[in-house]
Design goal:
The chain is mostly helical. The protein has helices at residues 10-29, 32-35, 41-64, 72-96, 101-112, 128-143, 145-152, 162-165, 177-201, 206-217, 234-248, 251-260, 262-266, 269-290, 300-312, 326-338, 351-367, 387-413, 418-429, 445-460, 462-469, 471-475, and strands spanning 379-380, 383-384. Helix 5 (101-112) packs across helix 6.
């Protein structure tokens, strides 16, 4: 199989990376509108220079390479590399905001991957522009740089359409990739503006409303206050809940919702399971808060909000995970690693894959009592799955668990608490953003790099990460 690997064409990869970098350059300049009234001149200059450099490099890549029909493996590689490019483009800005270089890389990766883990211990000690930049990059990363680029820069009929398939659900039919990307972008923007408006109506300040609105719909979780959303007026918390759920729904469901109405939502298996799991976690948290963690004084509103935030992978919290009992932390680990829907802004294993694995387990059990001649179709969510797709899902789940165990083992071997290590690595790999306090400036450099790698893999997923890191994808023998 190694001999048959078809390597990527470097020029094609660079050409499409150039397109993504041109949009990235424009996106990085946007926070200058916050730096100007705040008189944060260093941050203003940093954003303008970084934006111009990114856009300029992107334009040069486009000019020096030839656009060609992109292959599936090249689309996956481009989708994986863009987050590395974004991270190292943002890192100098984070460095000027007061972070060390390693912390700046960590923060930048956490931003664009919508993870939400942070090296900023005190949000009041960093420029407001930096807080807005983190929120905006989570918003861009939530929808996906690929989708935004297709919506803004790519003309209809372009061969870049294959890039969209790396961002959507399996089996989703998209007649026009550019039209679909624009439709998704418009809906994403509309939901974001609605969230911001509701926060403003709830008495949240303008700056905070924009930052929290951007990071809610993207299920990013970066906050402008050290206590996340603890202390928010309860109507403001309730206003965030529907948008956290919307962020964890499949992106393409919004288009079907407009075309088919509410039936499209009610008939979606992932939405039903997401809702059911959320109710289960809320009930379980209520029990924990009234029994083992009763001394902390958390109530029903805390259980409702944290339960939704956990299952959607948003990362906002009204409680301190570090203060919870081991039972409370173990309970949080389950939704953190399940995550939202496939094709959503949420991370982790994803509900669709969990359904596939459960269906595979069920079929394996029932095959032992069926006659050998009986042929049973493999059905999940009303769809018949082929063997290749089932194997792909099984391989992903195995890879996810293996990476989680390996990264946790590294922390435990270095003397960190086993439960805390598993919690932090799950948060990074699952892009949930909850922390028990390990993710801080006191963490060793190697541990920060492990979490940074987990965030990258968790966002782009196992297969694209493996392709980017596999040498034969870059240097194999070319065949016609």
């Amino acid at each position: 199989m190694r001999i048959l690997v078809r390597p990527v064409r470097h020029g094609v990869v660079l050409n499409y990376l150039g397109q993504l970098m041109m949009l990235l350059g424009a996106a990085i300049v946007v926070p200058a509108v916050v730096a100007l009234p705040a008189a944060e001149w260093t941050m203003l200059l940093a954003h303008v220079v970084a934006g111009l450099v990114a856009a300029g490099v992107g334009w040069l890549l486009r000019r020096s390479t030839v656009e060609s029909a992109i292959r599936p493996v090249e689309a996956l590689v481009v989708g994986g590399l863009i987050y590395v490019v974004v991270t190292f483009t943002l890192a100098p800005i984070m460095r000027l905001g007061g972070l060390s270089w390693i912390d700046a890389i960590f923060e930048a990766m956490s931003s664009c991957t919508t993870t939400g883990l942070s090296m900023i211990g005190d949000t009041s000690a960093v420029p407001r522009t930096l807080l807005f930049t983190r929120a905006l990059m989570q918003w861009y990363g939530g929808l996906g740089f690929v989708i935004l680029t297709l919506a803004v820069l790519v003309p209809p009929g372009s061969s870049a359409s294959r890039l969209l398939t790396t961002q959507l659900e399996k089996g989703e039919v998209v007649p026009s990739a550019v039209a679909a990307a624009r439709s998704l972008s418009h809906l994403y923007l509309a939901y974001t503006l609605a969230a911001i408006l509701l926060l403003l109506m709830g008495g949240v300040g303008i700056f905070d409303s924009f930052c929290y609105g951007l990071t809610t719909v993207s299920t990013g979780g970066f906050a402008t206050h050290n206590a996340s959303v603890a202390g928010f007026w309860w109507p403001s918390l309730l206003a965030l809940i529907p948008f956290m759920l919307l962020g964890a729904w499949p992106l393409t469901l919004y288009r079907r919702w407009r075309a088919e109405g509410l039936q499209a939502v009610l008939g979606d298996a992932q939405v039903r399971v997401l809702t059911g799991l959320t109710v289960i976690w809320i009930a379980a948290l209520m029990i924990v808060f009234r029994t083992t963690d009763a001394a902390l004084g958390h109530g029903a509103m805390d259980a409702v909000f944290v339960g939704v935030s956990l299952q959607t992978g948003t990362g906002f919290t009204t409680v301190s995970p570090a203060a919870l009992s081991p039972l409370g932390k173990l309970l949080m680990l389950l939704p953190m690693n399940i995550g939202g829907s496939l094709g959503s802004t949420a991370g982790a294993i994803k509900i669709y894959r969990v359904l596939v694995v459960l269906a595979l387990l069920r079929m394996t059990i029932f095959r032992t009592v069926l006659r050998p001649a009986v042929v049973t179709p493999f059905m999940v969510g009303g769809r018949s799955l082929g063997r290749d797709e089932v194997e792909t899902v099984a391989g992903f789940v195995i890879g996810y668990i293996a990476l989680l165990v390996l990264s946790t083992a590294c922390f435990v071997a270095a003397g960190f608490d086993p439960l805390g290590s598993l919690f932090e690595c799950s948060s990074a790999l699952g892009a949930s953003g909850f922390t028990v306090g390990l993710a801080s400036t006191a963490l060793p450099v190697w541990a920060k790099l492990v979490l940074t790698f987990n965030m990258w893999v968790g966002r782009i997923e196992i297969v694209p990460a493996a392709l980017v890191l596999y040498p034969r994808v870059w240097m194999g023998h070319r065949r016609r």
